[in-house]
User: Fold this.
Amino acid sequence: MAQKVAVLGTGKIGEALLSGMIRGGWAPSDLLVTARRQERAEQLRTRYGVEAVSNAEAAKAADTLILTVKPQDMGTLLTELAPHVPADRLVISGAAGIPTSYFEERLAPDTPVVRVMTNTPALVDEAMSVISAGTHATGAHLTLAEEIFATVGKTLRVPESQQDAATALSGSGPAYFYFLVEAMTDAGILLGLPRDKAHDLIVQAAIGAAVMLRDSGEHPVKLRENVTSPAGTTINAIRELENHGVRAALIAALEAARDRSRELATGNNN
Ligand SMILES: NC(=O)c1ccc[n+]([C@@H]2O[C@H](COP(=O)([O-])OP(=O)(O)OC[C@H]3O[C@@H](n4cnc5c(N)ncnc54)[C@H](OP(=O)(O)O)[C@@H]3O)[C@@H](O)[C@H]2O)c1
Assistant:
């Protein structure tokens, strides 16, 4: 019998997954969604031909539940769900920062839980989804979670102890690149380029560099050396980056993101 999968709290990430799964070959009839607002449920029904049900109905009917509400809404959702989730159901959490133990404490004993930290490029099928098993999740549960998240990008298994670091690197990662593009566009304007042209130049340089990093098999240092000729323009720019401590700033920034992820795991949402 086909696996029934329910996406609970189908917002941006939930919809990206739903769309990815359908494009990846899941039959809409094997998928259920839940939403907090009626109009959102209707929108998902119309767009994807899936059934929209209540959280309790999804918990009873689906073999796998993917929870994609915001971390601050997870407690309420679990209170609603817990009485209806049989212990043999796989629960996948897509929420940032919340440990698998949080779910295990609130669901029936032995419920398998898998934690996934994805990122917004899931919206364009270029996600990095980092996957960890809870106490009762088996290899088969991890494989199923990988199959689901592979429909929107790459996946990587890590021990749960590495999730806060992964959140700092790939979860928040896209924001660092947007920040760089924004700053480099400002630099382009300072150098006399119109904003739209500066933006296009930097975005294409970013895409080109990203594809080289992914596909060339070369170390980033080698790729950078290839653009850095003796007494050339690039080395002058690199010297300024080093003078301004950009490398140290990035290390400190990622450390701060890792620390905040740890803090969120302890329930500090302020
Ligand atoms: N966005 C990111 O950058 C990102 C990256 C990685 C991971 N994540 C994780 O992915 C999760 C979802 O993020 P998102 O950006 O997709 O948020 P989102 O767009 O706000 O989606 C969450 C959805 O859940 C709905 N919801 C809340 N409580 C509910 C309930 N009790 N029953 C049914 N539906 C409920 C919300 O309804 P309303 O529309 O009424 O609010 C909303 O549509 C978060 O836990 C986040 O940590 C996000």
In short: The pocket of NAP is lined by residues 8-9, 11-14, 34-37, 40, 55, 68-71, 73, 76-77, 94-96, 118-120, 171 (CB under 6 Å).
